[in-house]
Amino acid sequence: MSHIIGGMKMKKFNLRFYDQRWPDGWIVDLLDDMNEDFFPETSGCYILGSNDGTNFIYPWGTSPIYYIGQSSNIKKRLLEHKKYIECALEDHDELYGWPRYQYGAAFGADVAWYSIRGKQNPNKLESDLITRFYETYGALPVANGTWPSGLRKPVAGSRDDR
């Protein structure tokens, strides 16, 4: 059963890049304490996107999505994200946190999640999501720092300035 709360800015069409299935749930504003009861305690992946209407510019289009992650307990991981986004909001000048927290502090955080199914592995699901995002937009989400294991790294071009 999907949970869609409020008037989120990250819409269904922003998740079309992953055409395997729709998310199992959506929440507007990770920082809203009222939403915590909807987070599943299952393994899976989640997508963070701006909730202030901001779209990030990628080589092949724009998207509000800035981070794709995975966890063995989605609820626990999202509450951790919430904690560190709040830290970034409160102490922006002193805290040099991971980009996912800085983006959340600056642009808000809508969340969509995919629980694993059957023998599916969260790492593989995350790799699939990031790969599909890359194939659609020509880049990793702006706050993702690690190249996914399932996505072939680009081959560097040759130098032509010799």
| Name of the CATH first level | Alpha Beta
User: Mean pLDDT, nearest integer?
Assistant: 85
Instruction: Give the low-confidence spans.
Output: 1-8
Radius of gyration based on Cα positions:
16 Å
Tell me roughly what share of residues is in helical segments.
25-40%
Task: Note the main sheet.
Answer: 4 strands, antiparallel
Number of DSSP-assigned strands: 6
Task: Name the beta content range.
Answer: 15-25%
Helical stretch count?
A: 3
**CATH fold name, please?**
GIY-YIG endonuclease
Calculate the terminal CA-CA distance, rounded to whole Å. 59 Å
Please render the helix and strand layout as text.
Blueprint: E1 25-27, E2 44-49, E3 56-58, E4 61-63, E5 65-71, H1 74-90, H2 99-107, E6 110-115, H3 122-137
Antiparallel strand pairs: 1-6, 2-5, 2-6, 3-4
How would you explain this protein's 3D organization?
The protein starts with 24 loop residues before the first strand and ends in a 25-residue tail after the last helix. α1 (74-90) packs across α2 (99-107). The strands form two sheets. A four-stranded antiparallel sheet has the order 1-6-2-5. It has one domain (12-137): 3-Layer(aba) Sandwich (GIY-YIG endonuclease), CATH 3.40.1440. The chain is built from three helices and six strands. It is of the alpha+beta class and 162 residues long.
Descriptive labels:
162 residues; alpha+beta; GIY-YIG endonuclease; four-stranded antiparallel beta sheet; 6 strands; 26% helix; globular
In short:
The chain is of the alpha+beta class and 162 residues long.
